[in-house]
Specification:
Radius of gyration: 21 Å
Number of domains: 1
GO biological process, one term: DNA repair
Helix content: 40-55%
Shape: globular
CATH architecture: 2-Layer Sandwich
Organism: Streptomyces benahoarensis
Catalytic activity: Endonucleolytic cleavage at a junction such as a reciprocal single-stranded crossover between two homologous DNA duplexes (Holliday junction)
CATH superfamily: Ribonuclease H-like superfamily/Ribonuclease H
Keywords: Cytoplasm, DNA damage, DNA recombination, DNA repair, DNA-binding, Endonuclease, Hydrolase, Magnesium, Metal-binding, Nuclease
Order of helices and strands: EEEHEHEHHH
CATH class: Alpha Beta
Number of helices: 5
Strand order of the largest sheet: 3-2-1-4-5
EC number: 3.1.21.10
Strand content: 15-25%
């Protein structure tokens, strides 16, 4: 499985590609940061993020895209920029028919380090160890993107089985009727 992880941001959008499967060694196929000038117009910055993600998709041909789920912060401006960059990443993937998964920061930290409260240094250290790198990817946005890809590789099979189980349970369950509610009989002659 090849996954492009995207740590969304307007100034620095981390991107990382990981190959692997559950129970097998992981391999980094690429890592980087898409940068935009802070003084540029927001629309121009979003175009730069889009072009950067499209280049990564063209070059690495991932099967899945994992994006960090935007969470509430006190700084509304930061949240808006992150959400906009996240939407651009999802749009780029959707255009190509690639499945997109959203993972919260705590899910990613827990998957990679074992603790949903791990710090940036711990995430970077574990990404370095798991991918057998010489040094942690810099800046932290790049390491976070790789962590997102790793998280998806490890969580996707279980999530898929869970979705299949839920679908099978829905199909097997008898149709539920609400007590005391009668369905109207079809009327003849009215079309």
């Amino acid at each position: 499985m090849r996954v492009l992880g995207v740590d969304p941001g307007l100034t620095r959008c981390g991107v990382g590609v990981v190959d692997g499967a559950v129970g097998r060694p992981l391999t980094m196929a690429g890592v980087g940061v898409i940068r935009t000038p802070a003084d540029a117009d927001i629309a121009d910055r979003l175009v730069l993020v889009e072009r950067g993600i499209e280049q990564w998709l063209d070059e690495h041909r991932p099967q899945y895209v994992a994006v960090e789920r935007v969470f509430s912060q006190h700084n509304v401006r930061t949240v808006m920029g992150t959400a906009q960059a996240s939407a651009v990443a999802m749009l780029c993937a959707a255009r190509r028919g690639l499945p997109v998964a959203l993972h919260t920061p705590s899910e990613v930290k827990a998957a990679v380090t074992g603790s949903g409260r791990a710090g940036k240094e711990q995430v970077g250290a574990m990404v370095t160890r798991l991918l057998r790198l010489d040094a942690p990817p810099k800046p932290a946005d790049a390491a976070d993107a790789l962590a997102l890809a790793i998280c998806h590789i490890w969580r996707a099979p279980a999530a898929g089985r869970l979705q299949q189980a839920h679908a099978a349970a829905r199909r097997a369950a008898p149709s539920v009727r609400t007590p005391g509610v009668r369905r109207a009989a079809p009327q003849k002659g009215i079309r």
